[in-house]
User: What shape does this take?
Amino acid sequence: VQLVESGGGLVQPGGSLRLSCAASGFTFSAYTMNWYRQAPGKERDLVAAIRRIDGITTYADAVKGRFTISRDNTKSTLYLQMNSLKVEDTAVYYCYCPRLGSWGQGTQVTVSS
Assistant: This one.
């Protein structure tokens, strides 16, 4: 099982980024997938989740209306579109498969002017 995030970087407040998580070693379409984030000195928190069967999504209150989680099962890839970014969104973002207990290595997102 391998999860590889990409797409992080430095962006100004109000900007956008799209994170990707390439999955391999398992049947991606069969699993619910999550995005988590961890800011310096804080716990790792759930940001968004997308169910395997019906694609229903859920979001943390802090990102509702600004972030969108999606998946492309044909490419075994998970996405997180982040709009209207705020300084407090600065964190390392991880994709996670809860059923398998597998984490990616993370990608740094820094929101700063």
About this structure: The mean pLDDT is 96. The chain is about 0% helix and 50% strand. Residues 12 and 113 are 5 Å apart (CA to CA). The first strand starts at residue 2 and ends at 6.
